[in-house]
Amino acid sequence: MSALSAPHGASATREKSAPAPFWNPYVAGFGLGLVLLAAYLIAGRGLGATGAFSSLAAWLANAISPEHAQASAVHARYLEAGTPLTAWLTWLLVGSFIGAAVSGFTAGRFRVSVERGPRVTDGQRLALALVGGIVAGIGAKIARGCTSGQALTGAAILNAGSLVFMLAVFAAGYAVAWFVARKEWL
Amino acid sequence: MFPLSSTMELSQVASLGLAVLIGIGFGFFLEKAGFGSARKLVAVFYLYDMAVVKVMFTAIVTAMAGLFVLSAAGSLDLAELYVEPSNYTAAILGGLVFGAGFVIGGYCPGTSLAAAATGRLDGAAFIGGIFVASWAYAEFLSGFDTWLAASAHPDVTLPGLTGIPMGWFVLLFVGFLALAGWGMSLAERRFAGLKP
């Protein structure tokens, strides 16, 4: 009797607290494609996730020392476009944060946690995430866009440079994953 | 008629409000796809879960087909859409650096936001990294940036380069997606044992 009721009880609790499964990737991709199409139809340009950070960096640099900020062509370019508060890309990011939070909460996936492979500690993983963010950020600045602004947005309109960028991202990704980062993830 | 940005005057509040709405859709589908999870994202590089490529490719084909159909129907002026100038040196160099950062950090910029929004502290650390990089790039590489911008070519698209109309590329990409979908399901079975 107890052998029967125990697993039943366990599975009932799991059913209650388990997060909803992710969507079928083709369905989620279709939805994402419609959002990208909407961005093109409304704003005349696609999506972008890195521009807002440059806008914020330029604004902060300018607040600390305007002469110093003007000395950098990159800061100057973003300052000319306005403050982060009036930048289209900033509000796109605010929306993305809200959209992801709503999706995560309603699916039972919100959890304060550190995602890592089984062979690294939380501390190591946080340090690697910071370093990875810096490296990817520099790459995105050099290429003038990331997986959103270059890969998705550019590929949809068959931009040659964006397609080359995407191939380079995956080439480096596979090389680093197989030869350098196995211990971090597997 | 489309894009609205060139056919009607939107107030700043309306324009930024639309940015929030589009962003909500973007973040929502990223999270639904599982892209708020670093392990789900890097799985693509170990071939046991190809969701990243499936989602990206489907999104690209969907948007591309939509742009093509609307422009063929005369409701969209493709020439009014912004096309980032192409610089192949920057695309290759930036892409290689970006790809390395993607694997090390476990995210790309958009997905790190989805991760942080669902409580992943590593996602927040990655965002901190992007901010540091954006600042450092402007401080130390602004000369390089000026050179990059000056040596980029405006409006280089495959239909423009080859003279082949966009519709054929849409067909090509749809066919390729179907073929790749089959290939990816084989890879996922073959490499299922790598899943930690």
Distance between the termini of chain B: 51 Å
The SSE string of chain A, one letter per element, is HHHHHHHHHH
N-to-C span of chain A: 40 Å
Q: Return residue spans of chain A where pLDDT drops below 50 for at least 5 consecutive residues.
A: 1-14
Q: Total number of β-strand segments of chain B?
A: 0
| Multimeric status of the protein | heterodimer
Mean pLDDT of chain A: 91
Q: What number of structural domains do the residues of chain B give?
A: 2
Rg of chain B is 19 Å
Order of helices and strands of chain B: HHHHHHHHHH
Percent in helix of chain A: over 70%
Mean pLDDT over the residues of chain B: 96
Q: How much of the residues of chain A is beta strand, in percent?
A: under 5%
Rg of chain A, please?
A: 21 Å
Portion in helices of chain B: over 70%
Largest sheet of chain A: none
Overall number of strands of chain A = 0
Number of helices of chain A: 10
Provide the low-confidence segments of chain B as ranges: none
| Count of separate DSSP helical elements of chain B | 10
Description:
The complex is a heterodimer of chains A (186) and B (196). Chain A starts with a helix and ends with a helix. Chain A has a domain at 114-186. Chain A has 186 residues and is mainly α. Chain A contains 10 helices and no strands. The relative contact order of chain A is 0.10. Chain B is mostly helical and 196 residues long. Chain B has 2 domains: 1-32; 35-194, no CATH class. Chain B has 10 helices and no strands. In chain B, helix 4 packs antiparallel against helix 10 (166-190) and helix 6 runs antiparallel to helix 7 (121-140). The model of chain B has no long low-confidence stretch (mean pLDDT 96). The chains are: A mainly alpha (186), B mainly alpha (196). Chains A and B meet through helix 2, helix 3, helix 5, helix 6 and helix 7 of A and helix 1, helix 2, helix 3, helix 4 and helix 5 of B.
